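Q: Convert this sequence to structure tokens.
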Amino acid sequence: MNKNIVVVGDIILDEYHFGTVKRLNPESPAPLFSIHNTEYRLGGAANVAANIVGLGGQCTLVGNKGQDIHAETVENICEAQDIDFIPMTTASTIVKSRFIDTTYNQQLLRADHEEFIQLDKKYISQIIEAIESTDPAIIVCSDYTKWFLSKDLIQEICFTFAKKKILVDTKPNKFEYYNNIHILKPNFKEFTQIIWKEINNKDDEIEKYGSNLAKKLKSNLIVTRGEQGATLITLNNGIHHYHTEAQNVFDVSGAGDTFLAGIAVKINQGESLENAVIYGNKASGVAVSKIGTSIVSEHEVQ
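A:
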């Protein structure tokens, strides 16, 4: 049975302006970008949710909803993509605007719009109740360290849902808040920041420091390693390296989201952790061949 996966975290609206540069701006020494068309896509935690659905899963998204026109766009996309969205009205919608030169498929500029707020205890309780109402089989924390997943909320999630499988993608400054969970998934750069060591992206070094980290956090550890693939270190010190096939990389934006989504879908289907990582690795390989944050579908991952 395909049970519900809940994604909790920082919802981002990715705005893509596609166009070309043909001359300099007469007002300043900068390129003059001519916009041909604009697209909106789900980013952050919402991109994880979109990829879970794309890969055949059932997903509920719990996260921030602004009181602005961008919030309506997020809701409309979620509805169109069959994502059950439980919005928690807070600060304005987080928007990342990217300007892409279509001549070379190259990003020229990114501009972010966001504001930070502090979640109070009452609001944290409402978020926990929203998660509980979905009766989740798996909880995915997609933590872009904006503000939604505060320390207090993280600890409450880990305590309340201790018997559930919790999968986490977070940043180095917050990894220690997540203890005794099912999976912690940093990328290689984040991994080196967590262990406070400059190491080479090689199997033996990942094994050495990753084993210690998995034991410390009492969690299975997956390190995504770019073109080197991924490494899984389990709680019983099982070590598995998964290398990727050569591929054309156009954009790594959101590849980690797709990897996490693939793992969640396969674990939810009863697959082993090892098989889930293989699938997530393949799914993220498809994602990097696309421009921008993109949805990968089941039939693309074969």
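The longest strand covers residues 11-24.
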